[in-house]
Design a protein that fits this description.
Immunoglobulin-like; five-stranded antiparallel beta sheet; mainly beta; 1 helix; five-stranded mixed beta sheet; globular
């Protein structure tokens, strides 16, 4: 069930769309063990040496797709009866921000405002039924039929060929939906002590299940949850194959524990394990075929290593010696209390390295022992400011040492200032929130969160008393900077904020050196200097002659990107696209009302 890198990118996009349309489903062992859910945060992100970072699928944050197209049809149950009140949603593959609607008394639905010329995923759910989806749809249709069926389950056992249970075995399931190029992963269930597992409430479609246990796997086993009376029963056989084993040592000869060891076959199938306390490791392989081996220190204290040649199991005595990482990270930790001395359980932290690090903003939560711990940090000086509705505190400058934890001791919050504003749509007399508005306070490039009770409101507590600037950005509205001032315990209420419409234009052509202009290429513009979310993108498709145009664009700096379509050898068995890869295009600096011309080399 291992997929190529490009295939995983598309699976990630489809999976993110599924989560946006339906939310997660869960799998567990019969005793409740192994509870897990598919979430956007589980999805893979890859780095391409030629293309830079491949964008992760954006999360669903409420910003709908837009365009001139529509899509309609009917929702029926398994007996052909209309289903009223079913939630229907459409999302674009690779850009899962859904447009939602509801079926009427006759089961019919219609979704408007959809982009034309792109593949859409259409999903439906209703109480008492399993959610389902259909892919590869285009706008302009009103005859789509969506069938809702009762939820199915997958159950079974994981055992050896001799019948011994494999407790704790992980079971990965892939489901195949009509019109979707690649199967969708369900992650994950774990077998109980008897080797039994169950995954409940899934759509009754075809799929495959595969068990893994101590580095060995069962291989994929097919099922049809709809055909099997809504309850597929599987037996997954996991036998330990021939093994590779050895040790991982430091340059001084000391055993290294917790280092990851990876084995990969020429066909792309990979296995992994971690070294034990004495530095030893072993991997049970599927077959006696050549494997590549590499090791990686997740703590970053040692440089990784890779064998120059492949090895065929069974083979022992494969030792790695790791060299120290000259840029090894360190960490820091602290405890935090509010002004009255009570422990704090949630913080936002804005920090940067010194002298010229970029500021970042993130959530912090303590461990069970009440200690806040950082992730990997560069071995240099840093400064952080933490805030919460209870107050604010600065760490002052401190130094992180490679391989060590710097303990900052006890931090006590003091009363902070608060900034409040509403960002509203000037075209809406009701003063409803402006979708896609981004509010930034301080030096960070991470936007603040909207209020959960009123999405027009941005309420930012725990700021250092004094003065500052709030930056407000939107892809099709001109940016604003608004000064604020407030003392300890005070609120700077900036009132309703309206952003003027963007007046810029970005146009250009997609051109191939060998084939000339290229139509049908998906292009995006993303606001530079702000951590991207789904609603900071502008998207279009090149038309005849390879031309494209974005209008109503806000002034500022933009990054362009384009989506490479699959080549013939990258199509799946149904001829669908199996590889999507974003490549960076030129950067754009746009003045208010200005026009920028760019050329996208394809």
């Amino acid at each position: 069930m291992k997929l190529r890198k490009g295939g995983l990118i598309l699976v990630a996009a489809v999976a993110a769309a599924f989560v946006a349309l339906y939310g997660p489903w869960r799998g567990r062992g019969p005793d409740g063990a192994g509870d897990a859910a598919l979430r956007s945060s589980d999805l893979p992100v890859f780095s391409d040496a030629d293309a830079g970072s491949v964008p992760a699928p954006p999360r669903d944050d409420g910003k709908a797709l837009s365009g001139p197209g529509s899509l309609g049809g009917v929702v029926l149950d398994g007996a052909g009866r209309p289903v009223a009140g079913a939630e229907v949603a459409a999302a674009a593959e690779g850009n899962p921000r859904p447009v939602r609607g509801e079926s009427g008394p006759d089961g019919r639905f219609s979704l408007a405002g959809l982009p034309a010329g792109v593949d859409l995923l259409l999903g439906v759910r209703s109480p008492g039924f399993a959610p389902t989806m259909v892919g590869s749809l285009r706008t302009g249709r009103d005859d789509v039929t969506l069938i809702l069926l009762p939820p199915a389950r997958i159950r079974g056992t994981v055992r050896s060929g001799a019948g011994e249970p494999r407790p704790g075995a992980r079971v990965d399931v892939l489901l195949r939906f009509p019109g979707v190029a690649l199967p969708l992963p369900v992650r994950e269930a774990h077998a109980d002590e008897s080797g039994s597992f169950s995954i409940e409430g899934i759509p009754p479609v075809e799929g495959t299940a595969e068990a893994s246990w101590k580095g060995a796997t069962s291989g994929p086993v097919g099922f049809d949850a709809g055909r099997d009376a809504g309850s597929a029963s599987l037996v997954l056989i996991v036998d330990e194959g021939p093994a590779l084993s050895g040790r991982v040592l430091s340059a001084g000869g000391d055993p290294l524990a917790g280092v990851d060891v990876y084995a990969k076959t020429p066909g792309g199938y990979s296995l992994s394990t971690a070294t034990r306390q004495d530095g030893t490791w072993s991997i049970a392989c599927k077959a006696a075929e050549p494997h590549g081996l590499r090791v990686s220190d997740i703590m970053g204290q040692y440089l990784g290593a890779e064998l120059d040649e492949e090895v065929t199991p069974p083979r022992s005595g494969i030792d790695f010696t790791l060299q120290p990482n000259p840029r090894a990270p360190g960490w820091f930790s602290f405890r935090c209390v509010d002004p009255s001395g009570r422990p704090v359980e949630h913080l936002f932290g804005e920090g940067r390295s010194i002298p010229e690090g970029e500021a970042g903003l993130g959530e912090w939560k303590p461990g069970a022992d009440g200690v806040f711990r950082s992730g990997h940090m560069g071995a240099t000086k840093h400064v952080y400011r933490f805030r919460s509705p209870l107050g604010t505190v600065s760490t002052g400058e401190f130094e992180v040492v490679a391989g060590k934890v710097t303990d900052l001791g006890l931090l006590r919050l003091s009363p902070g200032a608060r900034v409040r504003l509403r960002v509203v749509d000037d075209a809406d007399d009701a003063g409803r929130p402006l979708d896609g508005a981004l509010v930034l306070v301080g030096e960070t490039r991470i936007p603040e969160r909207r209020s959960e009770t009123d999405p027009a409101v941005f309420d930012v507590p725990g700021l250092p008393p004094g003065s500052g600037v709030v930056r407000i950005a939107h892809p099709t509205r001109e940016r604003r900077e608004i000064p604020w001032a407030a003392g300890p315990g005070e609120t700077a209420d900036l009132g309703d904020v309206v952003l003027a419409a963007g007046t810029g234009t970005v146009r250009g052509i997609v051109k191939s050196e060998t084939h000339g202009p290229v139509p049908g290429i998906t292009l995006t513009l993303t606001m530079k200097g702000i951590s991207t979310r789904g609603d900071t993108h502008l998207t279009t498709v090149s038309g005849a002659g390879g031309r494209f145009e974005f209008t109503g664009v806000a002034a500022g700096e933009w990054e362009s990107a384009f989506l490479l379509p699959a080549t013939p050898d990258e199509l799946d068995r149904d001829g669908k696209r199996s590889l999507l890869s974003f490549r960076r295009g030129p950067e754009v600096v746009l003045e208010p009302g200005g026009t920028a011309e760019i050329e996208i080399p394809w």
